[in-house]
């Protein structure tokens, strides 16, 4: 999985790659590791969910699986990127109120007539 902050083709500051590898017993990798590679930085195990996704983390036991392998990574927006209902209402509610007022004024009979 790739994070491309500036949406350019270059692998530059702020960009990073997350990946997992198959089990390599000779290298002490059990397949449950997730590795983070930031642009211009050193690779490290992902630290997420209160633990490092390294060989010591018991992936199979934690997720009640038959395998330590991490077969897929999924990207979801961070909470700061998801608009809150309050934020949405602040942006849309005034426009809805203006539209409702215009419709009501258009339907109301003229005064004195």
Question: How would you describe what is shown here?
Answer:
The chain is α+β, with helices and mostly antiparallel strands and 113 residues long. The protein contains 2 helices and 6 strands; from the N terminus they run ββββββαα. It has a 4-stranded antiparallel β-sheet with strand order 1-2-3-4, with no helix packed on it. It has a two-stranded antiparallel sheet with strand order 5-6. It is elongated. The model has no long low-confidence stretch (mean pLDDT 82).
Give the topology.
Layout: E1 2-3, E2 16-19, E3 35-38, E4 44-45, E5 47-48, E6 51-52, H1 59-62, H2 85-107
Antiparallel strand pairs: 1-2, 2-3, 3-4, 5-6
The residue-averaged pLDDT reads 82
Which of globular, elongated, flat, extended, rod-shaped describes the shape?
A: elongated
> Low-confidence parts, pLDDT < 50 over ≥5 residues?
none
The ordered H/E elements are EEEEEEHH
Structural class, judged by helices and strands? alpha+beta
Question: Number of helix segments?
Answer: 2
Please summarize the sheet with the most strands: 4 strands, antiparallel
Strand order of the largest sheet: 1-2-3-4
Q: Report the C-alpha radius of gyration, rounded.
A: 26 Å
N→C terminal distance? 68 Å
Residue share in β-strands: 5-15%
> Could you estimate the helical fraction of the residues in percent?
10-25%
The total count of strands amounts to 6
